[in-house]
Amino acid sequence: MSLSTAEDDSSSEIHLPRDIDWEMLDKSKFFFLGAALFSGVSVFLYPIVVMKTRQQVALKDTSCFKMATSILKKEGYRGFYRGFGTSIAGTIPARALYMGALEITKCNVGYFANIHLGLPEASTSAIANASAGLSAAMAAQLVWTPIDVVSQRLMVQGGECEAISSANGLRKYNGGIDAFKKIIRSDGLRGLYRGFGISILTYAPSNAVWWASYSTAHRWIWSSFGCYSYPKKNENENGGIIYGTDSKFVLGVQALSASMASGASALLTMPLDTVKTRLQVLEGEESGHRRKPTVFQTARSLVQVGGLGACYRGFAPRWASMSMSATTMITTYEYLKRLSAKNQESVPFMRVN
Q1: Which of 100, 105, 134, 321 is the most buried (most CB within 10 A)?
Q2: How do residues 244-257 score in pLDDT, each as one tens digit?
Q3: How far is residue 180's CA from residue 239's CA, in Å, rounded to a whole number?
Q4: For the chain, how are helix, strand and coil distributed in percent, rounded to 5?
Q5: Residue 117 carries which DSSP code?
């Protein structure tokens, strides 16, 4: 890993890793390696998602430790991976849509903001990342919403959730395909896209906030710690000085930036995520007849039963999940982009005054 600058001993410059844009990527390698790497990340994080989902639809507050112990005792390790097959099958195409929309939007918006609007580098980066996160989330929800509906219903089957299923008239499903067929048969295609609107309202701003916060935090950390002086190595062919830095430091900056961005994003969108999950999972009953609750009815019922605090049920595992997911995602994603660069030697660092 190297840093390059045209001036020596400059104390007024920030040296940032140059972003690898869409045009610099080998697309086939990018999507193939991305599917493999992010599938591995999903295996690691899925149990936390299961606990978060069960807490959000629970009849009463249950601690993470008690929830995990109950699942392990009554269902074994398999309980932590209910619906995983369905989730991973949908994650691959959804992730491909997400990454493609993210990079294309970031490249185009960044170019327009910098060249046509003349905005400074910091503002350009924040705007490009926010726009990219927004468009990527909206594109990916076309696949993620039906996958969420099916996988979340499978997640709440078994153990203590049997009581929840009985109380809310939930059907029993024998795997993802069976759930898909029953939902289509009873509710049509709309049943698979239940909560699509609130999913957009949840994930689009969440992603915009996350990517903008990540860009800002990343720049701030680099400008604050170790970005002004590096051991001199040699001069490049253009006469610029090449500086060295530890790749572990780069990894640490990415991880810390991701954690900071996740905190803001999780706090902002948690109530919407709780309502979305309950809307997608719980069927609803009235006078013995099944009815599909609206977003407003779901939110009102949640607050009436558990108060405003109920909107933040599952906050701890969601924050943990988002932080770990974001940290592993961004470090994996940056590693993936460098692996997928057409020319590995054309990935220098850049200087920002």
Answers
A1: 134
A2: 456 677 788 888 88
A3: 62
A4: 70, 5, 20
A5: S
